[in-house]
């Protein structure tokens, strides 16, 4: 649920990239954007104005993949709930869920990796007008970077990390590793309990 919450928050946020330049000041997300000057926020209906034309189709595909990531985590959360209430109890179900979680995780990692490495090209920030992505003050010193990552992108990363943990846990359950660890813990508890030592001494 924490992973799903972070992913949904990231999808609804416009704070993936913060762009502050004299020609272009926007908060940009995978699904939303906000114009800092006019304080207008929308759901990427101005995509043709914001995204470089040659990257528009790639950006649309990233939106679709991240939406699949979100829907996949929602389905995973529902299935885990069904396991928790003993509606599903087979180990085969955990194997299928592990494979599904892995594909869901791959979709999220792909989106974040491509967005994080290509966002300057997506939004045209490689233009010479942005002076190599740095705004200079009047005395010639660096004032601040034109673009940087916002908290929405960080939340999306946290969601992916939690999704990876969920995938590992479901994989452990599918391979019965959890049962083995529990058996080992029980044996250690028995071996180190005072009652066991007393029985051994009496024997």
Tags for this entry?
5-stranded antiparallel sheet, two-stranded antiparallel sheet, alpha+beta, single chain, Butyryl-CoA Dehydrogenase, subunit A, domain 3, 203 residues, disordered C terminus
Characterize the main sheet: 5 strands, antiparallel
Strand order of the largest sheet: 4-3-2-1-7
Tally the structural domains. 1
Instruction: List the uncertain runs.
Output: 132-144, 197-203
If you average the pLDDT, what whole number results? 74
Q: From the alpha-carbon coordinates, what is the Rg to the nearest angstrom?
A: 24 Å
Globular, elongated, flat, extended or rod-shaped: what is the shape?
Answer: elongated
Question: TL;DR of this structure?
Answer:
The chain crosses the membrane at residues 64-85, 97-116, 149-172. By secondary structure, the protein is α+β, with helices and mostly antiparallel strands.
Task: Give a description of the structure.
By secondary structure, this protein is of the alpha+beta class. The chain has one domain (2-190): Butyryl-CoA Dehydrogenase, subunit A, domain 3, CATH 1.20.140.150. The protein is 62% helix and 12% strand. The chain has seven helices and seven strands. The protein has helices spanning 2-12, 47-50, 56-84, 91-122, 151-174, 177-192, 194-202, and strands at residues 17-20, 25-28, 33-35, 40-42, 134-136, 142-145, 147-149. The strands form two sheets. It has a five-stranded antiparallel beta sheet with strand order 4-3-2-1-7. Helix 1 (2-12) packs antiparallel against helix 3 (56-84), helix 1 runs antiparallel to helix 5 and helix 3 runs antiparallel to helix 4. The termini are far apart. Residues 132-144 and 197-203 have low confidence and may be disordered.
